[in-house]
Design a protein that fits this description.
Elements lengths: L6 E6 L1 H18 L14 E6 L3 H10 L5 E8 L12 E4 L9 E9 L3 H12 L4 E9 L15 E2 L5 E2 L15 E4 L6
Parallel strand pairs: 2-3, 2-5, 5-6, 6-7
Antiparallel strand pairs: 1-9, 3-4, 8-9
Helix pairs in contact: 1-2
């Protein structure tokens, strides 16, 4: 299987990805940094990667954040092996880290309908998180059914089916070093 031949075109190359990760990490570092006399520093956040799609983004992001942070994962599935979200995510892996009284930043590869993240936000709030925000590499606002604030401005794109940089179709293509549009014949 010639992996790269399945890609119609590359949307974001490695340099563009690295720049975007640096921008987001800088924003998180500034928001939780040392503070000043008028604003004391906020306690370090807990970054929670939404497995498996966010694993590469999370790894790059945490290595670029200039703060002491805690990292953990949750696994929530709403796509299965299809291209459309079921709208009813299932939590199959929960946190090991106690988030009670802590700020949590959910790190996601892509925000589509928002249903999965909405369920995860409620789940983390029920565990006692003092606040929850979302940091996503990609954003599909046109498909959003549940609205919430993102850390930074997500990379917006039209309704392509994208893979690479952790994102998949049927668990394939996560290992691509870029984000590309999958040719329709490989997912239809």
């Amino acid at each position: 299987m010639a992996l790269h031949s399945h890609i119609e075109r590359v949307l974001w190359g490695q340099d563009q990805i690295a720049r975007r990760v640096t921008e987001l990490a800088s924003e998180i570092s500034a928001n939780f940094g040392s503070g000043d006399s008028a604003h004391p520093p906020r306690p370090p956040p807990v970054l929670v990667g939404v497995a498996t799609g966010a694993f590469l983004f999370l790894a790059d992001l945490v290595r670029t954040i200039d703060l002491p942070i805690t990292v953990d994962f949750v696994r929530a599935q709403s796509y299965g092996s299809g291209t459309l979200s079921s709208g009813a995510p299932v939590l199959s892996l929960d946190l090991k880290v106690d988030v009670k009284g802590k700020h949590v930043i959910l790190v996601e590869d892509i925000v589509d309908t928002g249903s999965t993240l909405s369920c995860l936000i409620s789940h983390l709030e029920a565990k006692g998180a003092s606040s929850v925000s979302v940091c996503a590499f990609l954003d599909k606002p046109a498909r959003r059914k549940v609205h919430f604030q993102l850390v930074g401005e997500g990379k917006f794109y039209r309704d392509y089916f994208v893979v690479g940089y952790g994102m998949d179709f049927a668990e394939l293509y996560r290992n691509l070093p870029y984000v590309g549009v999958l040719k329709p014949e490989y997912y239809q």
